[in-house]
Design a protein that fits this description.
Elements (H helix, E strand, L loop, with lengths): L2 E3 L11 H10 L3 E6 L7 E5 L3 E3 L11 E5 L9 E5 L2 E4 L5 E3 L5 H13 L22 H16 L5 E11 L6 H11 L4 E7 L3 E7 L2 E6 L3 E12 L13 H20 L6 E10 L2 E11 L8 H9 L7 E2 L1 H11 L10 E5 L4 E6 L3 E4 L3 E10 L5 H20 L2
Antiparallel strand pairs: 1-8, 2-3, 2-10, 3-7, 4-6, 5-6, 5-17, 7-8, 9-16, 9-20, 10-11, 11-19, 12-13, 12-18, 13-15, 14-15, 17-18, 19-20
Helix pairs in contact: 1-2, 3-8
The chain binds the ligand C=C(O[C@H]1C=CC=C(C(=O)O)[C@@H]1O)C(=O)O.
The ligand C=C(O[C@H]1C=CC=C(C(=O)O)[C@@H]1O)C(=O)O binds next to strand 9, strand 13 and strand 20.
């Protein structure tokens, strides 16, 4: 049984997200705050001892918590698991401590939550070691994209996703909480998240792409998402027209998902799509895959698919190895947690892991924004640069509103 902790250990205290976030930052505790697509509830989990592992951990035996994983599975950045020592829901306003959470730390946290409206909000964590990044300009990005097109035409690979950063000073009056709230309002159908981990850093994002989910009804889901164009002026998908390039690009991601099912010898899945979906100011093509784990005896499907899928050809390329090599050799920066994955694990609603896209990393005085574009043999490097600009708008808009 879990215990809801309120004033002086009583149950039933009512707190705001601001109080909870401020208390975690003040005590330099790791916190993840999120809202699932099309939901109103904002949830948070705080961990007294984040765990960092070199490989993707197994989902099924995991306690409830939040996973934050990098793009490179064998790189220098850890796969971080925040066990939910403390949980918060905006629907009840309650703080719940896990039965095995250290009691003194839990009650200290509750005390700090109660005082957290007083005084200035604390600074957010920045990485212990600065990450390697230098913004590419149009010229250097399109040069790398041209090399990619040549490599694809020479049949070294079929597709590669090239990305870049854009660093911008934080606006006066910037607040983490306000930025998160603006994202909630602007992107109702995205997974909106804020992750702040001492020594690791602080990331904010509104991603449209689910990587793996297993819900309360034991239904496994994943998607093949790719192809991008600006949202039509009428704000609907009814008149969307896709070019052959995008259709093929998305088709490659779809084939990749199917190849993962095949590796597991799983045939009992349903596939719907591709359909046009809206993500902020953009539209994508998406195919939805589902497996009912009540009908198929595959208890570890979540972990197995996660390990096979990541990094998908929506963020890496096809085949996986040469495209990943191309990215590491030519992108010119460390993606860190951009295009990794994140989300709640074994929460009351289930496990929901999303690809970390349309995101920014917050440093002391600046934000590093990330965006990529899928390059195929038909790509125009200039159009791909424009596409990354469109994708960056999601985060720039949030920063421009302060
Ligand atoms: C790599 C990104 O988007 C991926 C997801 C959807 C569409 C994509 C595309 O059209 O290239 C990308 O594969 C990003 O937003 O940084």
């Amino acid at each position: 049984m879990e215990q809801a902790v309120g004033i002086g250990g009583e149950t039933g205290g009512h707190y705001t997200l601001e109080q909870v976030l401020t208390a975690a930052l003040r005590q330099q505790l790791a916190i993840a705050v999120w809202r699932l697509p099309l939901q109103t509830e904002v949830q948070a989990c705080i961990s007294f001892a984040p765990q960092s592992t070199p490989a993707i951990p197994a989902l099924e035996p995991s306690p409830a918590g939040f996973l934050f994983c990098p793009f490179e599975t064998e790189g220098e950045h850890g796969h971080i698991f925040l066990k939910a020592d403390i949980r918060y829901s905006s629907l009840t306003g309650q703080i719940t401590t896990a039965p095995d959470a250290p009691a003194t730390k839990a009650s200290l946290f509750t005390e700090v939550v109660m005082q957290s409206e007083i005084g200035e909000p604390s600074a957010w964590p920045i990485p212990a070691k600065p990450t390697r990044h230098a913004d590419r300009n149009e010229e250097t990005f399109t040069a790398a994209a041209s090399l990619a097109v040549d490599a694809i035409r020479a049949e070294t690979m079929e597709k590669v996703v090239l990305s870049r950063t854009s660093t911008t000073p934080l606006p006066a009056g910037f607040s983490l909480l306000k930025a998160f709230e603006k994202m909630l309002a602007a992107y109702p159908n995205a997974f909106v998240s804020l992750v702040a981990i001492p020594g690791v850093g602080t990331w904010l994002g509104a991603t449209p792409e689910i990587l793996v989910s297993v819900d309360q009804q034991q239904v496994f889901k994943t998607v093949a998402l790719a192809g991008t164009q600006p949202l039509c002026e009428d704000g609907s998908t009814a008149n969307a027209i896709w070019r052959q390039k995008e259709i093929e690009e998305q088709g490659m991601v779809e084939r990749y998902v199917l190849s993962c099912f095949k590796k597991l010898r799983l045939r009992e899945y349903t596939e719907v799509g591709p359909r046009t979906v809206i993500a902020g100011n953009l539209m994508h093509l998406r195919t939805d895959f589902k497996v009912d784990l009540k009908e198929v005896d595959f208890p570890t499907l979540g972990t197995d698919m996660l390990r096979l899928l990541h990094p998908t050809s929506a963020v890496c390329g096809l085949p996986k190895e040469p495209s990943q090599r191309f990215i590491l050799d030519h992108e010119g920066y460390d993606r860190c947690y951009y295009s990794g994955f994140l989300g709640p694990v074994n929460s009351e609603a289930g496990t929901y892991l999303f690809v970390n896209l349309r995101c920014m990393q917050l440093l002391e005085h600046e934000a590093v924004l990330y965006a990529g574009a899928g390059i195929t043999g038909e790509s125009s490097p200039e159009k791909e640069w424009q596409e990354t600009r469109h994708k960056l708008q999601t985060m720039f808009k949030i920063l421009s509103e302060f």
